Fold:
Amino acid sequence: MHATFDALPQAVQAELPRAFLNWMGCVLGGCREPPVDLAAAAFLPLPPGKGRGEGLPASIIGRHQRADLATTALLNSFSASVLSFDDTHLATVTHPTGPVASAIFALSETRPVSGQDFATALAIGIEIECRLSNALLLPPAQANTGLYVTGLTGPIGAAAAMGRLLGLDERKMNWAIGLAAAQAAGFRATHGAMSGLLVPAFGARNAVHAALLAANGFTCPETLLEAPNGFIDIFSPAADPARATDALGHRFELLANAYKPYPAGIVIHPALDACLDLAARLPPGADPAAVTVTVHPLTLTLTDRRAPADPLEAQISLYHWVAASLLRRTAGIDELQQDCIDDPQIAALRTRINAISDPALNRDEAIAEMTLADGTTLRAHVPVARPMTDADLDRKFRAQATRVLDAAAADTLLRLCRDLPTLHDVGQQIAAVWKE
Amino acid sequence: MHATFDALPQAVQAELPRAFLNWMGCVLGGCREPPVDLAAAAFLPLPPGKGRGEGLPASIIGRHQRADLATTALLNSFSASVLSFDDTHLATVTHPTGPVASAIFALSETRPVSGQDFATALAIGIEIECRLSNALLLPPAQANTGLYVTGLTGPIGAAAAMGRLLGLDERKMNWAIGLAAAQAAGFRATHGAMSGLLVPAFGARNAVHAALLAANGFTCPETLLEAPNGFIDIFSPAADPARATDALGHRFELLANAYKPYPAGIVIHPALDACLDLAARLPPGADPAAVTVTVHPLTLTLTDRRAPADPLEAQISLYHWVAASLLRRTAGIDELQQDCIDDPQIAALRTRINAISDPALNRDEAIAEMTLADGTTLRAHVPVARPMTDADLDRKFRAQATRVLDAAAADTLLRLCRDLPTLHDVGQQIAAVWKE
Structure:
């Protein structure tokens, strides 16, 4: 894939700064969360008390700490996913930008990378990642539904993006991809605790190492993805590798990537759209006696948690979000706090929700029905998820960024992200915002 | 498993220093190999020119360089496996000691760990690792034969060993095990290039991070190994998790662990024993016109490479080792050098070898038959691999250690490893050998 920025379709060119902005906002919004503190203490190479990594090449965004490229990529990627607010390739529930952007942003702090080159590498990484996810999960594949594909394909896309910026030749690019695939790991049982949120971050780190190894001349079989006993063979033996290259360069999976308005598992979003629609029509003080939500089967496979104990479980509990959105009539970070999870009224409603799995529905379709105490019934049908507009994304970014930056710095950063293709040195120009 | 050293059977107590000695020898023998140079350049946290990591807590053995615990564990584990001279749990082709010993040895440089505690942690790690490998691969499991289980179970055993030395309670131990399992990766298509040799090393690194994360309070579902969509479910859905705990504390898999006399893939060893037996009976100057080797099917699955291009492929080429051992009448590091691989006589003999896969054979059984140009036939049958005696292990260690240490230091280190259970501070006492 010898794409240049100019050769990308205009819609892709326009989407890349949106993906980058959404990533940067998620990093800033998540970087001071307690799980990131715990991870930083385990991963930073310098022992506590040995300074803030002054001699090291890249910056842990929002944390006033520097580290080597791989650790930086890991921690920035973890910040991006820790609140489950990162983007999602809907067909495969891949979260594509985190591993790719985190890896190449760390690299861009060590050498001049133009905005166009950065955006092109980002496009390549996301495209490879989502296309491999397609190959692993979509027909004819009969993959184990327990695969958390961001952990499997994220490092591969990110390694390819790194390889692009490092100027690897085809052979070394194949090594980089293979070395990333050799470390691929991701399964759904990691969800419901901090562990699941860390999976994309391992991919970011592993991609950096894979690309640096390949650049150094560290060898790997060149067909690791499709070889017998290789990546696809292990994780999805019935998959057709050709699915990954179908209409390559013509159809862009980046354009099938969605940004989240709610910090909830993406498969819950159609139900949330429907419930917020109902909530807006609910008379003040009305009591939802019974609620039925009908969702695509994957939604229940991934989020069938009726009594979440903490924010990590609540994030991926269909029942929690349905109950909280109906009673609070909104679905933001506040609805992920422990007081909302423990709210007796919300907890009680969670037990009265009837969730139905309907294979006839699309993945981004949901129906919510509610019977009030007086017998009134309300119904909302969301046939297609609502994409986030530029204004929605800007609003989301500001709310996240101002958790760690002042409003002026957040605005400066917003403009830099929006203007990504015009930057002459992505790492320097952007890192200057938090060096100021 | 609340084992103490005293409670371990005497045979296990006696085996632990042998496993440790063999690991240390392999680290020293491999640490200056070119792939380790390439890996060090990619993984060391400090950029080139930033010194030898003087402030960092652990030592890259034989390389006069220090790093954080995880990177140290990774590079020491890679040194141990880079020449494929590390130990092997024969039933599952797991290489158990590398990830475990590398992780806990790095930790032991940062705090006093007695030899008995170190040996007990090593026993726990190896036991968990090999037992999980049994569960993944042996009946009733119908696992993909492409799994390279050291990459899957190595990090889990090593994380448990780390957790033991960190004093983790049961809940945190389960987190550590889960966080290691969440990063498990290993498949056979990585073989035949440097990539395959690095797989155990990733496990050592990941185990360090998993244990440090858990110790910090970073959460993970507590039943990640056996949960739906969890570790066993993903890699070997038909496996019986109970197989991992069968006769736990009574039968020790460490006693089914073998040390290699040859730097070749372990499944080739029975054929090598048989060929060296034939070679010893071969008249001087005799030409093996035709050679037939009969091996367990797994041997051919893993080593069916008739024309290896380089040492990495030759290591796991049945044909190369059969040809080289018959013509050179030995099978050591010299037979892995490029000149031996390219030797026209050896290359020609490789093409005349008939390799037969026979499911009636045991895994450590092989038959070699040879017809000479004059029609004479010779036959050797190795029914069971020959275990290495203490003297064999000492000889192997000295040959490896003296690649980087002088003979006196190698002897000092040999005695320290042999006396492991008597040491009061493993890290300090052993690291003193290369600090001298």
About this structure: The longest strand of chain B covers residues 288-295. Chain B has a mean pLDDT of 94.
